[in-house]
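Help!! Second protein's tokens look totally different from the first
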Amino acid sequence: MPINGQESLKEFIRIENSNLRNEIKLLIAEMNKDISGKIGELEVHMVTFQKDMLIKIFGIIVGTVGIAVTILKLFP
């Protein structure tokens, strides 16, 4: 039969273990929120960058076609 002090130690360890488990769960939840927020920000930046690149590519194509038309008009 365990001594009263041993039961107290078991109870103390159980409570501490439970507290640590709860703290770890809170930290994980906090990190998940932070990571999902950062992923959302990255997606917005990527969409903006893609639109910017498409506009630049379109500008290059239009400029190239304009130069080609001008050359064709100069040298029939």
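Here's the second one for comparison:
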Amino acid sequence: MKNLSISNKVHIPLILSIIIGFIIIMINYFISVSEMKEDVYTTQAQMLSSVYNESINLKRV
């Protein structure tokens, strides 16, 4: 590390920081997308079951 130029001493940590930041962003993205999918599926399941129950109740009357 002693023989590197100032440019390399700056660029190496900068590039490593960018790569680590990108990896963290991608992990966060995949976690949030999976949480959103779960929320959407549970919401849709509740809506569909309520619509189904309403239609069954209307046919009975």
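Reply: Different proteins will give different token patterns, so don't panic. The mean pLDDT is 90.
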